[in-house]
């Protein structure tokens, strides 16, 4: 789903909360969603592609989503998917071309 980048930054500025036995989720402020009063909305963000105005979120409440890297010039390491890494920047700008 797409949301304004300012909302994404606001949601992720707070620490995630425990959700189930193994996963975590971010609490979504009530002004960003339409839900019954008193029921907190949580978003399990598995990946996000940030642009200046809009951010594409991959949400998975069951935490069963998988990502497959089809091609990479060198060996893959966890450093590759950290924000602002060379691979992260390549994905960010080739995946959402605007």
Fold blueprint:
Elements: E1 2-4, H1 5-12, E2 17-19, E3 23-28, E4 41-43, E5 45-50, E6 54-59, H2 86-95
Antiparallel strand pairs: 1-6, 2-3, 3-4, 5-6
Helix share bin? 10-25%
Structural class: alpha+beta
Distance between the first and last residues' Cα: 17 Å
Strand content: 25-35%
Q: Please compute the radius of gyration using only Cα atoms.
A: 15 Å
Shape: globular
State the total count of DSSP E strands: 6
Instruction: Determine the number of helices (DSSP H or I, runs of at least 4 residues).
Output: 2
Give, in spatial order, the strands making up the sheet with the most strands. 1-6-5
Number of domains: 2
Question: Helix-strand pattern, N to C?
Answer: EHEEEEEH
Mean residue pLDDT? 80
Largest sheet: 3 strands, antiparallel
Account of the protein in words:
- The chain is 18% helix and 28% strand.
- It has helices at 5-12, 86-95; strands at 2-4, 17-19, 23-28, 41-43, 45-50, 54-59.
- Strand 2 and strand 3 (23-28) form a beta hairpin.
Task: Please outline what is shown here.
By secondary structure, the protein is of the alpha+beta class.
Question: How would you describe this structure in keywords?
Answer:
98 residues, alpha+beta, 2 domains, 2 helices
